Amino acid sequence: MATLNCEIVTAERIVFSGDVDMVVAPGIEGELGVLPRHAPLLTALQVGGLRIKQGREEILMAVSGGFMEVLPNKVIILADAAERAEEIDVARADEARRRAESRLAQQANEVDTARAEAALRRSLMRLKIAEQVRERQRR
Amino acid sequence: MPSAREIRRRIKSVKNTGQITKAMEMVAASRMRRAQTQVVSARPYSDKMRSVLGHLAIISQRAGGQLHPLLEQRPIRRVGLVLITADRGLCGGMNSNIIRSATQFILDEAGAPVTVVAVGRKGRDFMVRHGRNMMAEFTGMPEHPGLIDTLPISKIIMDDYSSGGFDQVYLAYTQFVNTLMQKPVLRRLLPLEDIRESGIELPIDYIYEPNAETVLANLLPRYVEMQVYQAILESIASEQSARMVAMRNATDNANDIVNSLTLSYNKARQASITREITEVATAAGAL
Q: For B199, which residue in chain A has the nearest alpha carbon?
């Protein structure tokens, strides 16, 4: 079966690189799955979970925005931030969530509110994905 | 032959110089380590971004359309050159190498009047001395800059390119290869170079989500910012590496000189002792 070469990079490092069967990414217009020989596509990404299917394994990742280029046999994801679910620092994400919530409660000016909302979304997403992975391990 | 005292004075002065260069070597070495990790870990992202944008450049050429101001190709009347050098010297031939290739580009290759945007004091000083057109200068970059420190530079370039001031923009910087080797590089930044990678069949057109304008409007400025940032990181890593090597050579040379001076000092000292003994002996014989 044809596979897809997938590379996920952030400004700091290469997060993932390898041949995979399927990538499900949080596109700006909604989640989209990419199989080999997908039509060429260029999309912005939103904050969300990313799934990679590699044989029987499924890898979960948290992505905070960026871009994805899809070519027939290759997917390149330029993420603003990305980490594997196992790498997520739950305590830190929880801390970030609390900070964002308290800042939202203070109701400062518009820019601050928008920034806090974005931070809140990112931390919630991280927590959710970390939770999913833990659940999967329990099973 | 110089007197023993004179030699002693020189030994002392060379030793002092050696100590200073040794200290500079150590400072450069510790800065170098951080700069190198920073540049190496930032590379994959900007490389990938370059290949994505390279595909995009080819597609936009094929489409013949003007998808975004930063993709526009125009006849070349004015060329911008971002010259990235170090703020300080004492780093071997690094600054002169990059300035030389920039000068050659300005005089021979550009094919149109060149305006310089100087990043780093050395490049600025050179361009001022030679009366080149200069649009902006940025000196005093922090040692480990974040993307945010380089945004003003990329903003100037993009503003000028979009408003039709520059028809082409080049980046001149020193690429970090390894500690012993740095390579001056001159690369076109705008309009985008078309980079053809082997093994990838290029599509006729993309599906854009949500649409071409939005994606490009987000992606292109970020691309320019990343390329400028990466070039500056490369330069800083090169500078610190070159300085460490230069200072290590200087320290070694100082040690060599101290050794040979010590030898001549001992010779001179012995000669003077021998002479004194002979004098005493002669005097005793005469009595």
A: A73
